[in-house]
Write a structure and sequence with these properties.
This protein is an alpha/beta fold. 43% of the residues lie in helices and 15% in strands. The termini are far apart.
């Protein structure tokens, strides 16, 4: 692996081998979703606790100060919306020239294995990897399922992750599943980070799946809504960070969360 690729990956994955990525790219298909109406304001109190920020070029240019110290993971796929016919009908939306101009440390795009646009999105990933590898920029593949959340099984996610790695992704973002998640990770030869998915009802649920996912081999998370849509986003991200970087259990993380919320009152 050449120096530039190593350097960018080392900015994303911390010295302990773990990572906490904070995505705020949801507007590219959801529009101004709750708590992301003004994304720059949303992340101000929580960005310091993230290892990297994932977003689109439009939000980066217009909402983020250029003195940001955190590495950027640039979302470069899109072309479909929640009101359209099929979320899987995506394409590459950002050129390699633009990626370099925006000084991205990595790029991300979705693949939709099992959809009628499977071939299209996998071809997009291959082309993106070809371009980015020329310049030492890592690609993170996102194993998306659109509206079909029933696909979040180890067998399906393991298939998606392996295909993404086979096509050259340097990191894979995938959903957590309660059964056999270790098989998903063990079958993927590149680092795996856990997606948050829809917001869950309690903080403990988040802490439990983050802790369990790390025990089963994931290097960290790419969590958005389960942090910045909560009532206490600072306490939430600090507790999740403690699980990832300080080896807290889910119970210890909940205790920390409750302590931080109490101190705020």
């Amino acid at each position: 692996m050449e120096w530039g690729m190593k350097n960018r990956l080392n900015k994303l994955i911390q010295p302990d081998g773990k990572a906490l990525f904070l995505p705020i790219d949801h507007g590219y298909f959801q529009g101004p979703t709750t708590k992301l109406e003004r994304p720059g304001e949303t992340i101000k109190p929580i960005l310091q606790y993230a290892d990297a920020l994932m977003l689109t070029r439009g939000v980066l240019r217009n909402c983020i100060e250029p003195n940001i110290k955190k590495p950027i993971i640039l979302r470069v796929s899109g072309g479909a919306s929640v009101v359209g016919e099929d979320l899987a009908n995506e394409t590459i939306t950002t050129s390699i020239k633009e990626i370099i101009k925006l000084n991205a440390s990595a790029v991300s795009m979705s693949i939709f294995v099992g959809s009628k646009y499977e071939h299209q999105t996998l071809k997009n990933l291959s082309k993106l990897v070809d371009k980015c590898e020329e310049y030492g920029i890592p690609v993170m593949a996102v194993t998306a399922v659109g509206r079909e959340l029933k696909k979040r099984t180890a067998r399906y996610l393991g298939l998606c992750c392996r295909i993404a790695a086979e096509l050259g992704a340097r990191v894979v973002k995938t959903y957590y599943c309660e059964q056999d998640f270790e098989k998903v990770v063990n079958g993927c030869p590149v680092p795996v980070v856990i997606a948050g998915g829809p917001k869950v009802s309690t903080q403990l649920e988040v802490f439990e799946f983050v802790y369990d996912g790390l025990q089963k081999g994931a290097i960290g998370v790419n969590l958005g809504r389960n942090i910045w849509q909560t009532q206490n986003p600072v306490a939430s991200i600090r507790a999740i960070r403690a699980i990832i970087h300080d080896n807290f259990t889910s119970k210890e993380a909940l205790d920390l969360f409750n302590k931080l919320v109490a101190e705020k009152k």
